[in-house]
Design brief:
The chain is of the alpha/beta class. The protein has 2 domains: about 220 residues, Rossmann fold (3-Layer(aba) Sandwich), CATH 3.40.50.10260; about 280 residues, 3-Layer(aba) Sandwich (UDP-N-acetylmuramoyl-L-alanine:D-glutamate ligase), CATH 3.40.1190. Helix content is about 40%, strand content about 15%. The chain is built from 18 helices and 19 strands. The longest helix has 23 residues. It is elongated, with a radius of gyration of 26 Å.
């Protein structure tokens, strides 16, 4: 099936796909590879100018591959504009690529100072006023750096100068973990045409800094015929699935949801989730709670109906989780008690529609893996990394955790939302998505309870589960971004996300 146009610009490609895209463009545009390199260098120069990085002097570090060729072309363009440029080429005993050699010949016609680094004794001392441009190794790097390159990276990292990485910070692997390996620490990374998987991993933030994607004119036709592993969810994807309300709608149109939540001392989780569910547009909401939470819920969420279940301090058993509901969310604040395996068993066995499973329900599930087959297909699990590790085993790094989420989503036929900055959504069909909204201010108690309410509301409104997951995570992050803009990241709390959901919907409608 062809990839929709609105999705093509958001794909996250592998190193091989990026190489093939270059080759496709060179063949079909047509354009020579050295001219494509010139385009990339020109776009980098434009970015440097637009972001006030055009200063008097630059130190540019180049390998002998095409990433180094980009660096040489940038050096020539800077020199032509009158800037003092020092180029340091790492010498590993092999000839450069054809495009590297072509740019080196052109560079010799300028007044750029060129140095060859053959040993640590040739490492330069970089004045503090110089901008460092890293063009040692790009996306094509397929193994960790060792020897002289690793030592050079460590040397560059000792300087406080701002580092601009071209394509990738040198040493960073595009498609696998770089933990424990030497990697350039950049403040900005200028990526060509698309994002790479490495940029989406929290473990790599110290190396990539801010990532900027530059258009260098690769032919978009290439994207229509490829399969993709992951994409970044941005506004165009959300606009394609968002459904504005029709004038003759009524509350029945928007579904009846249930939230099974709360216990003594944790009724706040139930309240946060319920308020978010209502603000996300559900038609009716029934909250199943223990007796201790009755007054709290009646006061804090008067718009919701309340059903008191057996148990004073926690829900010991549930009288019904019947098909009267369009969606169920379970987990916020319920605690982890001996009887809760039976509680989940009854809910899973009596409800045949997709549901949302979060928080303590995930912790109960982690202790009772035999319950997984009873969960309706395409239900949405929303673990944070710690909960995910308890469910499926500890992962050594972010890449391993992502791959495991993809595997489990397909194996169990469930949607897994791995929460965090750039929350990762793994679909049962194999495709995966990273969210583009959200900020560190959302790393606060109760934020996940709010997400559970939003997702449950969208399922109740009969959004397909995959769309409910993507739309819910996006709206959750967008409301958080609006809240942070008003309150600051430090001051915002979970309830502020709910309070700004209306503004998030308004922004979505305005741009639809």
């Amino acid at each position: 099936m062809p990839i929709p146009l609105y999705l093509q610009s958001m794909l996250i490609l592998s190193a091989k796909q990026i190489h093939d895209w270059d080759a496709y463009t060179i063949l079909n545009k047509p354009i020579s590879s050295v001219d494509l390199m010139e385009t990339a260098a020109t776009r980098c120069l434009q970015w440097l100018q637009q972001n006030n990085f055009l200063r008097q002097s630059f130190h540019i570090f180049c390998g002998k591959g095409n990433n180094g060729g980009d660096g040489l072309a940038i050096a020539r363009l800077l020199s032509n504009k009158g800037f003092k440029v020092f180029v340091c080429i790492i010498e590993l005993g092999q000839k450069g690529t054809d495009d590297f050699q072509a740019n080196l010949a052109l560079l010799h016609q300028t007044d750029v100072s060129i140095y060859y680094i053959q040993s640590p004794g040739h490492f330069p001392i970089i004045p503090q006023t110089h901008i460092i441009i890293d063009a040692l190794f790009g996306t094509g790097l397929n193994r960790p750096l060792t020897g002289l390159p690793a030592e050079l990276v460590a040397h560059i990292n000792t300087f406080p100068n701002p580092v601009i990485a071209i394509d990738m910070p040198s040493g960073l692997l595009a498609d696998s973990t770089s933990m424990g390996y030497p990697v350039i620490r950049a403040v900005h990374t200028l990526s060509f045409e698309c994002l790479k998987m490495a940029f989406m991993m929290a473990e790599n933030e110290p190396y990539t800094g801010q990532v900027h994607v530059l258009d260098i004119g690769l032919l978009p036709n290439y994207l229509s015929g490829i399969s993709y592993e992951a994409a970044l969810v941005e506004e165009d994807i959300i606009k394609a699935m968002y459904r504005p309300r029709q004038k003759f709608s009524h509350k029945g149109t928007f579904g009846h949801a249930a939230l099974i939540s709360g216990s003594y001392g944790f009724m706040g989780a139930a309240s946060l989730s319920a308020n978010a569910c209502l603000r996300a547009g559900v038609g009716k909401l029934t909250c199943h709670i223990p007796a201790c939470g009755y007054t709290i819920m009646q006061v804090s969420v008067p718009e919701a109906m309340t059903r008191v279940e057996a148990g004073d301090h926690y829900i010991e058993s549930i009288s019904s989780a019947a098909e009267q509901y369009d969606a169920i969310g379970i987990g916020p604040g319920i605690g982890v008690y001996d009887g809760h395996a039976g509680l989940l068993d009854k809910v899973f066995s009596s409800f045949s529609k997709p549901m949302v499973i979060d928080a303590d329900a995930l912790n109960v599930l982690a202790r009772n893996a035999g319950l997984f087959p009873k969960i309706t297909a395409f239900s949405i699990l929303t673990p944070h990394p710690g909960e995910f590790d308890r469910l499926f085993g500890k992962s050594e790094n972010d890449f391993a955790r992502m791959r495991l989420a993809q595997q489990k989503a397909k194996e169990l036929q469930l949607i897994i939302v791995l929460k965090g900055h750039r929350s990762f959504v793994a679909m049962p069909g194999g495709n995966s998505f990273f969210n583009s909204t959200g900020n560190p201010g959302m790393a606060t108690g109760g934020s996940g309870d709010v997400l559970t309410g939003i997702l449950t509301a969208l399922l109740a409104q009969r959004y397909p589960p995959e769309q409910a997951a993507l739309l819910g995570v996006y709206l959750h992050g967008l409301a958080g971004d609006i809240a942070a803009a008003s309150l600051t990241e430090e001051a915002m709390i979970a309830g502020d996300i709910t309070q700004h959901l209306g503004n998030a919907f308004r922004q979505l409608k305005t741009n639809t």
